[in-house]
């Protein structure tokens, strides 16, 4: 609307329905009235309905005993725990699968996106095929595929697929050995911390030295060697104070080790693969958005290829990539709610599913669930605004 | 001083730089690293394609009526074949299927008319698609008038339901989206903040929670004793959800229209609604079409979620068929079929939107 | 052999092309190009669009690859060897039609990038050097701004300063004024004239015939991928020999 603030016109006052400011005011008052009337109407109906069904409103139900089990929980949980605790368990499971999904989707997405731009024709075509296949098939279908067509058709525990008799995969999930740390193990995280700190110091020093003298050395590789090598050295020196709790087949099932339930695997795989196809497309178009002239100018200044990428292409491409990338992360988090279709105990499945059904507190439960996602969205968009304000290219 | 009076004829490029061999060298074997990648790629392709082709075609069984006709070595397409009617029409009564076919044929015709650039009267066809078609579809699919018998919505399913959900969601979301987008650009603070909150709310929550809300909370909002059809609940949820995304696409399109257009219209003495309806929106809508197609693709894929609230869209009906005791163990076939159908729809739509985008970009280059 | 060639000093041509041919796919863009640029020489290349003049100078620093013939820059033959290409690029500065400044870096950072990362200069030295050149192109006061905040003419002057910071032996100009508004062309041309007067070896693809008349030692006219006419500016403009040159000049000077 190109209605600009205008000086008050002189002359006879127009009738109020033709006065622009008054018309806006009346319109807005009407809008408020309409919304308020609508809200009052549904609140009234809801109260009547709840009264008819004998449901009391309020959040008191959160302290009641839940009475149902949850297959995967990051915190202590039993069927004796409260409904409030089911909320926390579900939320943590959502965050767990989202975080690991974001990680995997980023790795796959960047790899495929860069491969899509490869000068190698075959690799570029393969990457393109990946993108076109996975982003055009509904996520829920992909989740079902991994869960019902792949993981649920795996052999039973007795005939598990195994890798070196240490990792086992069967219809009940993936079994990994669990590290048990002995007393001397505390040294390892300590050295890792020292190595990380030393690496940071090294990188900073290298940058300063480059500024001051123009000389530099490959600090990145040194840091990597330091972070990997130092803890490994200490590990060997202290005689490897770790024992592995390898899963053992006892009866019909495995005992010991870490169990990853198939619901998690299916959801995680599908979320990562699906989101990665969108991320790959974002990465591709982000890199392509950098005009060829930029690369040429950098080459004409005789910058070697790796520095052209590092100093000119990547910093500009990241500005283009990060905003849509964050919204893909947000999509992934929201899409993790599809967990409910295969029974992975995420927030929607546990809380908006089982808890809602048992308590009938539809309004409270749905409101709390939505509030969680809205909060996450809000935090992410706050980050985006901050990011855009910080790195946006300065234009006139 | 040199002068070249005689023009040199263009010569063909040296053999080493053109032709298939040079192409192979440049694109697949340009160095040791590239050669390794090419070989790895070929190996990967071999690993993926051979079992797939063997399973899906060579060892597959196509003809038969029951699971006994399948050898179990390859895919059992007999299963898909036997269930095809359900996958497409749900439980729609067999004698009435012509109504579904007619509806979709009409729809396909309208869309084709809109998509083919040469055909005239685009605006009227668009109005017919957005306003006339839903009414026609209602009378045809649901019935109850003109001597057509009523087909209850619980009998609707399969691909037909998927399409109905997506199209209704879209058609419903478009006008709401336009209002929201205009409202978000408004200078009236209350209108603007109302639209911002509305849009950001729906964009901030997952569709599943919206569908849950529609299915468990909507009945509470209605006067006691009034019940809403399950399909209508899904429609309401999807439309509200979709309208927020639509609003953002439309807002993007509106922003692309130069301010001068609206000012010129204002200079001609047009009021707000005339300026928008006659000048700005028609131009903006053209630029929005790729974005609208893209949101439609997401909506089309998202309709699969309705199975969680108990409706049988294409995926839902495939999923239900998988638990049929006469056809246990054909999950892969079912999913591959559904995936193929979804893929064909989404891929062709995304190609179309890319084509439009290219056309738009070249049109705006100076 | 190269050693000897370099030591021969001023007698070695700065750029030498012998029998250079290039194709884009099946399109023959450069046809049997033979020419050389002596040290300190200033050459203007003109010709209708699509005649291959930009391609010609882009071959010199290997932004484009030629398929036949020989290119020698400052005594170094241009091959596929990356080290050698980088060595040549260090001595060849280039200014582009669309400036190609790095939009995420300030003017000063644009100028310091290559000295710091390629020539390993300390930041302080690189900045001092950059300021010197920015002063020479009269834009030092904008050093802390980003390219997006500058006018086209200012950006192009920064681009020239950025190239000069690498102390090139030869500067290539690829239509440096054709993306500029008329009122900005002069400020860029002034800088180029000054550079020419200081004895910089220059190869300019441009349609600025006034610039060619005042500055060039030689003018080269190209059409359909070949050098049609090559002459000192005075005879070139007053008495063009080839029909094509006459036609081109009448078109470009006609209005």
TrEMBL record, chain A:
<feature type="transmembrane region" description="Helical">
    <location>
        <begin position="24"/>
        <end position="43"/>
    </location>
</feature>
<feature type="transmembrane region" description="Helical">
    <location>
        <begin position="55"/>
        <end position="75"/>
    </location>
</feature>
<dbReference type="InterPro" id="IPR010065">
    <property type="entry name" value="AA_ABC_transptr_permease_3TM"/>
</dbReference>
<dbReference type="GO" id="GO:0043190">
    <property type="term" value="C:ATP-binding cassette (ABC) transporter complex"/>
</dbReference>
<feature type="transmembrane region" description="Helical">
    <location>
        <begin position="184"/>
        <end position="205"/>
    </location>
</feature>
<keyword id="KW-0813">Transport</keyword>
<feature type="domain" description="ABC transmembrane type-1">
    <location>
        <begin position="91"/>
        <end position="384"/>
    </location>
</feature>
<protein>
    <submittedName>
        <fullName>ABC transporter permease subunit</fullName>
    </submittedName>
</protein>
<keyword id="KW-0472">Membrane</keyword>
<dbReference type="GO" id="GO:0022857">
    <property type="term" value="F:transmembrane transporter activity"/>
</dbReference>
<keyword id="KW-0812">Transmembrane</keyword>
<feature type="transmembrane region" description="Helical">
    <location>
        <begin position="129"/>
        <end position="149"/>
    </location>
</feature>
<keyword id="KW-0029">Amino-acid transport</keyword>
<comment type="similarity">
    <text>Belongs to the binding-protein-dependent transport system permease family. HisMQ subfamily.</text>
</comment>
<dbReference type="InterPro" id="IPR043429">
    <property type="entry name" value="ArtM/GltK/GlnP/TcyL/YhdX-like"/>
</dbReference>
<feature type="transmembrane region" description="Helical">
    <location>
        <begin position="217"/>
        <end position="244"/>
    </location>
</feature>
<feature type="transmembrane region" description="Helical">
    <location>
        <begin position="264"/>
        <end position="283"/>
    </location>
</feature>
<dbReference type="InterPro" id="IPR035906">
    <property type="entry name" value="MetI-like_sf"/>
</dbReference>
<dbReference type="GO" id="GO:0006865">
    <property type="term" value="P:amino acid transport"/>
</dbReference>
<keyword id="KW-1133">Transmembrane helix</keyword>
<dbReference type="Pfam" id="PF00528">
    <property type="entry name" value="BPD_transp_1"/>
</dbReference>
<feature type="transmembrane region" description="Helical">
    <location>
        <begin position="95"/>
        <end position="117"/>
    </location>
</feature>
UniProtKB/TrEMBL annotation, chain B:
<feature type="transmembrane region" description="Helical">
    <location>
        <begin position="123"/>
        <end position="144"/>
    </location>
</feature>
<keyword id="KW-0812">Transmembrane</keyword>
<keyword id="KW-1003">Cell membrane</keyword>
<feature type="transmembrane region" description="Helical">
    <location>
        <begin position="328"/>
        <end position="349"/>
    </location>
</feature>
<dbReference type="GO" id="GO:0022857">
    <property type="term" value="F:transmembrane transporter activity"/>
</dbReference>
<feature type="transmembrane region" description="Helical">
    <location>
        <begin position="98"/>
        <end position="116"/>
    </location>
</feature>
<dbReference type="InterPro" id="IPR010065">
    <property type="entry name" value="AA_ABC_transptr_permease_3TM"/>
</dbReference>
<feature type="transmembrane region" description="Helical">
    <location>
        <begin position="194"/>
        <end position="221"/>
    </location>
</feature>
<keyword id="KW-0813">Transport</keyword>
<protein>
    <submittedName>
        <fullName>Amino acid ABC transporter permease</fullName>
    </submittedName>
</protein>
<dbReference type="Pfam" id="PF00528">
    <property type="entry name" value="BPD_transp_1"/>
</dbReference>
<feature type="transmembrane region" description="Helical">
    <location>
        <begin position="156"/>
        <end position="182"/>
    </location>
</feature>
<dbReference type="InterPro" id="IPR035906">
    <property type="entry name" value="MetI-like_sf"/>
</dbReference>
<dbReference type="InterPro" id="IPR043429">
    <property type="entry name" value="ArtM/GltK/GlnP/TcyL/YhdX-like"/>
</dbReference>
<comment type="similarity">
    <text>Belongs to the binding-protein-dependent transport system permease family. HisMQ subfamily.</text>
</comment>
<feature type="domain" description="ABC transmembrane type-1">
    <location>
        <begin position="159"/>
        <end position="353"/>
    </location>
</feature>
<feature type="transmembrane region" description="Helical">
    <location>
        <begin position="33"/>
        <end position="53"/>
    </location>
</feature>
<feature type="transmembrane region" description="Helical">
    <location>
        <begin position="276"/>
        <end position="297"/>
    </location>
</feature>
<feature type="transmembrane region" description="Helical">
    <location>
        <begin position="304"/>
        <end position="322"/>
    </location>
</feature>
<keyword id="KW-1133">Transmembrane helix</keyword>
<dbReference type="GO" id="GO:0043190">
    <property type="term" value="C:ATP-binding cassette (ABC) transporter complex"/>
</dbReference>
<dbReference type="InterPro" id="IPR000515">
    <property type="entry name" value="MetI-like"/>
</dbReference>
């Amino acid at each position: 609307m190109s209605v600009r603030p205008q000086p008050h016109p002189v002359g006879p006052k127009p009738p109020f329905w033709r006065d622009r400011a008054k018309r806006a005011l009346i319109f807005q008052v009407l809008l408020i009235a309409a919304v308020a009337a609508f809200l009052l109407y549904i609140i009234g109906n809801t109260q009547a309905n709840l009264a008819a069904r004998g449901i009391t409103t309020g959040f008191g139900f959160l302290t009641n005993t839940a009475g149902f089990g949850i297959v995967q929980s990051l915190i202590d949980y039993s069927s004796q725990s409260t409904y409030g605790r089911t909320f926390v368990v579900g939320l943590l499971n959502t965050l767990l699968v989202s975080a690991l999904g974001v990680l995997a989707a980023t790795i796959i997405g960047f790899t495929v996106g860069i491969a899509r731009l490869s000068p190698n024709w075959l690799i570029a075509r393969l990457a393109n095929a990946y993108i076109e296949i996975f982003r055009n098939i509904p996520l829920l279908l992909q989740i079902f595929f991994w869960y019902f067509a792949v993981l649920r058709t795996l052999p039973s525990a007795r005939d598990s697929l195994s890798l070196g008799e240490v990792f086992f995969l069967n219809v009940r999930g993936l079994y990994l050995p669990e590290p048990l740390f002995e007393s001397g193990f505390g040294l390892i995280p300590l050295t890792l911390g020292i190595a990380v700190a030393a690496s940071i110091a090294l990188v900073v020093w290298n940058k300063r030295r480059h500024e001051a003298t123009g000389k530099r050395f490959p600090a990145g590789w040194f840091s990597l060697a330091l972070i990997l090598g130092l803890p490994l050295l200490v590990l060997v020196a202290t005689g490897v104070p770790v024992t592995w709790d390898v899963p053992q087949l006892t009866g019909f099932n495995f005992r010991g080790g870490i169990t990853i339930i198939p619901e998690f695997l299916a959801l995680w795989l599908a979320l990562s693969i699906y989101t990665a196809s969108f991320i790959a497309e974002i990465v591709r178009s982000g890199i392509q958005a950098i005009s060829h002239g930029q690369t040429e100018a950098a080459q004409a200044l005789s910058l070697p290829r790796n520095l052209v990428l590092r100093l000119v292409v990547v910093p500009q491409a990241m500005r283009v990539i990060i905003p849509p990338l964050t919204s893909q992360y947000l999509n992934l988090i929201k899409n993790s709610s599809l967990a409910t279709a295969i029974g992975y105990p995420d927030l929607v499945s546990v809380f908006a599913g089982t808890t809602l059904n048992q308590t009938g507190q539809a309004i409270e439960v749905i409101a709390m669930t939505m509030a969680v996602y809205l909060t996450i969205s809000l935090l992410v968009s706050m980050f985006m605004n901050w990011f855009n304000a910080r790195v946006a290219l300065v234009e006139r | 001083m040199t002068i070249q009076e005689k023009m040199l004829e263009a010569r063909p490029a040296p053999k080493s730089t053109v032709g298939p061999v040079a192409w192979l060298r440049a694109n697949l074997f340009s160095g040791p690293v590239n050669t390794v990648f090419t070989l790895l790629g070929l190996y990967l392709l071999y690993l993926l394609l051979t079992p797939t082709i063997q399973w899906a075609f060579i060892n597959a069984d196509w003809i038969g009526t029951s699971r006994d006709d399948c050898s179990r070595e390859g895919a059992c397409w007999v299963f898909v074949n036997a269930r095809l009617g359900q996958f497409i029409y749900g439980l729609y009564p067999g004698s009435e299927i012509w109504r579904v076919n007619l509806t979709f044929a009409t729809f396909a015709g309208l869309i084709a008319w809109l998509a083919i650039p040469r055909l005239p009267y685009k605006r009227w066809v668009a109005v017919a698609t957005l306003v006339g078609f839903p009414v026609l579809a209602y009378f045809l699919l649901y019935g109850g008038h003109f001597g057509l018998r009523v087909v209850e919505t619980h009998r609707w399913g399969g691909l037909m339901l998927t399409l109905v959900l997506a199209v209704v969601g879209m058609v419903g979301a478009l006008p709401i989206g336009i209002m929201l987008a205009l409202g978000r650009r408004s200078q009236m603070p209350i209108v603007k903040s109302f639209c911002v909150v509305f849009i950001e709310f729906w964009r901030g929550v997952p569709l599943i929670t919206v569908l849950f809300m529609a299915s468990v909370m909507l009945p509470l909002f209605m006067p006691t004793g009034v019940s809403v059809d399950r399909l209508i609940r899904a429609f309401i949820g999807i439309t509200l959800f979709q309208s927020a995304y639509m609003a953002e696409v439309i807002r993007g399109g509106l922003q692309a229209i130069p301010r001068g257009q609206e000012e010129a219209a204002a200079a001609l003495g047009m009021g707000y609604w005339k300026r928008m309806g006659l000048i700005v929106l028609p131009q903006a809508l053209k630029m929005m079409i790729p974005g609208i197609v893209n949101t439609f693709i997401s909506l089309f894929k998202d309709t699969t979620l309705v199975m969680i609230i108990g409706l049988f869209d294409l995926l839902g009906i495939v999923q239900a068929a998988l638990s049929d005791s006469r056809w246990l163990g054909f999950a892969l076939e079912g999913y591959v079929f559904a995936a193929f159908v979804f893929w064909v729809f989404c891929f062709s739509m995304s190609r179309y939107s890319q084509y439009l985008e290219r056309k738009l970009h070249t049109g705006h280059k100076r | 052999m190269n050693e000897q060639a370099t030591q021969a000093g001023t007698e070695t041509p700065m750029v030498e092309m012998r029998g250079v041919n290039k194709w884009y796919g099946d399109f023959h863009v450069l046809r049997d190009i033979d020419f050389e640029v002596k040290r300190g020489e200033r050459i203007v290349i003109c010709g209708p669009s699509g005649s291959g003049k930009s391609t010609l100078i882009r071959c010199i620093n290997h932004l484009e690859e030629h398929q036949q013939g020989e290119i020698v820059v400052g005594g170094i033959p241009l091959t596929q060897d990356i080290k050698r290409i980088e060595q040549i690029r260090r001595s060849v500065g280039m200014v582009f039609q669309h400036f190609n400044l790095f939009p995420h870096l300030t003017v000063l950072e644009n100028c310091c990038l290559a000295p710091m990362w390629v020539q390993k200069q300390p930041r302080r030295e690189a900045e001092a050097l950059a300021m010197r050149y920015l002063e020479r192109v009269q834009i030092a006061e904008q050093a802390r701004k980003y390219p997006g905040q500058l006018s086209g003419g200012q950006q192009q002057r920064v681009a020239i300063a950025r190239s000069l910071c690498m102390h090139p032996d030869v500067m290539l100009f690829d239509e440096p004024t054709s993306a500029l508004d008329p009122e900005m062309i002069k400020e860029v041309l002034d800088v180029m004239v000054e550079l020419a007067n200081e004895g910089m070896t220059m190869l300019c693809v441009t349609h600025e015939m006034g610039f060619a008349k005042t500055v060039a030692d030689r003018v080269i006219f190209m059409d359909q991928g070949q050098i049609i006419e090559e002459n000192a500016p005075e005879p070139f403009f007053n008495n063009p020999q080839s029909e094509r040159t006459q036609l081109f000049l009448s078109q470009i000077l006609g209005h």
